[in-house]
Amino acid sequence: MIQDSLGPNRFSRRPDRLSRPARLALVVATAAAGLVVVGGVAYAGSPNTNTRVVVHSGETLWGIAAAHYPGANIEQSISSIEAANHLDGASIRPGETLTLPAP
After folding, report:
1. Are 81 and 101 spatial neighbours (Cβ–Cβ below 8 Å)?
2. Top-tier CATH class for 51-100
3. Out of 14, 47, 75, 80, which residue is the most buried by the measure of CB atoms under 10 Å away?
4. Which pLDDT belongs to residue 26?
5. Please, are residues 60 and 90 in contact by the beta-carbon 8 Å criterion?
């Protein structure tokens, strides 16, 4: 009978262990990778980036659009707000909550 050069317990060897600095480096690298993933999710933006505003007395869609979409075409902004809120026109009431779509 031919015997293996490693002996009968060749599979019972303990696996090599990482040194303390190597384990620390592994923990730090894993934590850094986790932060990158979490940060990417947090700053990637959510699919729904709409803003909600409550209409105050005296406010108009024109004023709301001008305040929330600076530099944008006001008429297009108003149309977007009307479409997002299923409005038939520019008539809004105090206390009403409007969804302002992302620019």
Report:
1. yes
2. alpha beta
3. 80
4. 77
5. yes
